[in-house]
Amino acid sequence: MKNEFYPQVDKSSLFEEGYIAAKSSHSRGSTLDLMIVPLDSKLPVYHPGRPLADCAAPAAQRSPDNSLDLGTGFGCFSPLSHPDNAMLTAQQRANRLLLQTLMRDAGIIQNGGISPLTNESYPKTWFDIPVKERTSNDALLKNLIITPVGKHNNS
């Protein structure tokens, strides 16, 4: 797990170094992470048991995905994932600029930062929702079921 998501950062430092927020709008469903995937791309085959690869390695050495190369794998907690890292290639910077431009044009980014979801239903609520295996054969929700078991209000 460490190689795949935080290869160069000590796990105990993820909060302190700002990779993870103590209270995140991700858990409320009002913030999400985006990536650009070309329309003609093919989803790589997943091989169970395959060793996890360093998410900050060159694209050809990382776990395969079908997204544009932004310098790191998706969800990578690494100094290389920082927006203005000098180690990025010109193409990786161009891909990041494309993503930022698309987000700005869609109204997701304003004033240089990610804008909160407007009219958010639960702006001060953090949910605790476990993910469980689903037993039905529902084609859309075949593998997962989400069951709310509690929520934490932080006014």
Automatic annotation (TrEMBL):
<protein>
    <submittedName>
        <fullName>D-alanyl-D-alanine dipeptidase</fullName>
        <ecNumber>3.4.13.22</ecNumber>
    </submittedName>
</protein>
<dbReference type="InterPro" id="IPR009045">
    <property type="entry name" value="Zn_M74/Hedgehog-like"/>
</dbReference>
<keyword id="KW-0862">Zinc</keyword>
<keyword id="KW-0378">Hydrolase</keyword>
<keyword id="KW-0961">Cell wall biogenesis/degradation</keyword>
<dbReference type="GO" id="GO:0160237">
    <property type="term" value="F:D-Ala-D-Ala dipeptidase activity"/>
</dbReference>
<dbReference type="InterPro" id="IPR000755">
    <property type="entry name" value="A_A_dipeptidase"/>
</dbReference>
<keyword id="KW-0479">Metal-binding</keyword>
<keyword id="KW-0482">Metalloprotease</keyword>
<dbReference type="GO" id="GO:0046872">
    <property type="term" value="F:metal ion binding"/>
</dbReference>
<keyword id="KW-0645">Protease</keyword>
<dbReference type="GO" id="GO:0071555">
    <property type="term" value="P:cell wall organization"/>
</dbReference>
<dbReference type="GO" id="GO:0008237">
    <property type="term" value="F:metallopeptidase activity"/>
</dbReference>
<keyword id="KW-0224">Dipeptidase</keyword>
<dbReference type="GO" id="GO:0006508">
    <property type="term" value="P:proteolysis"/>
</dbReference>
